[in-house]
Amino acid sequence: MNSVEHPERPGAPTGADAAAENATPEAGDPRLAELEKLRAENLRLIAEQRNVATRTQRELAERLRFAEGEMARAMLSPLDDLQRALDAAPTGAESETFVAGVRVAHEHFLKALRGRSIESIESVGKPFDPELHEAIVFQPHDKVPQGTVVVEVQRGFRLHDRVLRPARVVVSSGPAAK
Questions:
Q1: Where are the alpha helices (DSSP H) in 2-95?
Q2: Which tens digit of pLDDT belongs to each residue from 60-75?
Q3: Which residues fall within 8 angstroms of residue 154, CB to CB, at 6 or more apart?
Q4: Torsion-angle region of residue 92: left (phi > 0), alpha (psi -120 to 50) or beta?
Q5: Do the Cβ atoms of 167 and 123 come closer than 8 Å?
Q6: Is 150 strand, coil or helix?
Q7: Which pTM value belongs to this model?
Q8: Rounded CA gap, 65 and 72, in Å?
């Protein structure tokens, strides 16, 4: 049987040749194996593309979540200065107004940080944790168990679950040797 070209699509087979080309491949047909191979490759590429998109979205969300970390670190020193001013303020009637003003500024500062998911790390009375604390000194203490934070020298802070700055602490080394 002669192949006659289709008038609308030059070079396209017609008649029996077209029917054979458009026929569904049967088991064992090499075309079927090739189609399966192409299908598997397409599915793999689609899965890979979805994985890349998911990973990219997760990384972007993580970057956005911690974007304020650098700003927060820069704000911690002025906050420390406010705390030192409160700690060193003289007592008495003449300084009450000054202390009250510094205390209000300090509280507003802490509130602004909390509004950005920046929290202070609780230290005193807690077990020493090298992920959260930086031990400055290990000091003998008869009433506090070994490995417990006795004094907080500088407050630590974290943003979500990341430590921005560890708390600088004095840690009990247990009862003094007799």
A1: 15-22, 30-65, 69-88
A2: 888 877 777 777 777 8
A3: 80, 165, 167, 168
A4: left
A5: yes
A6: strand
A7: 0.56
A8: 13
Cα 67 off chain centre by: 10
Q: Residue 170 in contact with residue 150, Cβ under 8 Å?
A: yes
Which residue in this structure is represented by tokens 């049987």?
1
For 73-103, write each residue's pLDDT tens digit: 778 888 888 888 878 777 777 678 778 888 8
CA distance 20 to 16: 6
Query: Which amino acid belongs to residue 94?
Result: E
CA distance 17 to 8: 16
Phi, psi of 52 (to 5 degrees): -65, -45
Does the domain at 69-172 match CATH 3.40.50.150? Answer given as no
Domain positions in the chain are: 25-65, 69-172
Structure tokens, 21: 């080309």
What's the rounded Cα separation, in Å, for the pair 75 and 69?
Answer: 10
